[in-house]
């Protein structure tokens, strides 16, 4: 007998790892210097959708890419609160 899994509810290992890291804010912020570039976007998306403002602020400070596109992101919290945390992370000269 086979059990058919619903693909929409299957959580990936990457999603589980991101959630676990985001649940430990000090460890997440400390790990930003060690995280490979390929993992920044999925971690950023998870932090954004989870409303982790302090982690978002820290991620924006060390963002490894030239651009940070936020137009297609959605969140349950006030968009302005999340955006404010991200702007606080910008290093304006």
Can you put this structure into words, describing what you see?
Keywords: Leucine-rich repeat, Repeat. The chain is mainly alpha-helical. The protein has one domain. It has five helices and no strands. Helix 1 (13-22) crosses helix 3, helix 3 packs antiparallel against helix 4 and helix 4 (53-61) packs parallel to helix 5 (79-89). The radius of gyration is 15 Å and the shape is globular. 14% of the residues are buried.
List keywords for this structure.
5 helices, 93 residues, mainly alpha, 0% strand
Strands, total number:
0
Low-pLDDT stretches are none
How many helix segments? Answer: 5
Mean pLDDT over all positions: 82
**Main beta sheet strand tally, sense and closure:** none
**Beta strand %:** under 5%
Any idea how many domains? Answer: 1
Rg, rounded, reads 15 Å
Query: What is the 3D form?
Result: globular
Secondary structure category: mainly alpha
- Helix and strand pattern: HHHHH
Indicate the topology:
Blueprint lengths: L12 H10 L2 H7 L5 H14 L2 H9 L17 H11 L4
Helix pairs in contact: 1-3, 3-4, 4-5
GO cellular component, one term: cytoplasm
Keywords: Leucine-rich repeat, Repeat
InterPro entries: LRRC14/PRAME
Q: TL;DR of this structure?
A:
With 93 residues, this protein is mainly alpha-helical. The chain has helices at residues 13-22, 25-31, 37-50, 53-61, 79-89.
């Amino acid at each position: 007998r086979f059990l058919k899994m619903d693909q929409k509810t299957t959580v990936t290992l990457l999603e589980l790892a991101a959630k676990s890291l985001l649940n430990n804010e000090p460890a997440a912020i400390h790990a930003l210097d060690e995280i490979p570039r390929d993992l920044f976007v999925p971690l950023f998306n998870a932090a954004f959708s989870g409303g982790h403002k302090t982690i978002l602020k820290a991620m924006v400070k060390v963002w490894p890419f030239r651009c940070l596109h936020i137009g297609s992101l959605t969140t349950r919290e006030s968009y302005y609160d999340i955006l404010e945390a991200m702007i606080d992370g910008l290093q304006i000269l």
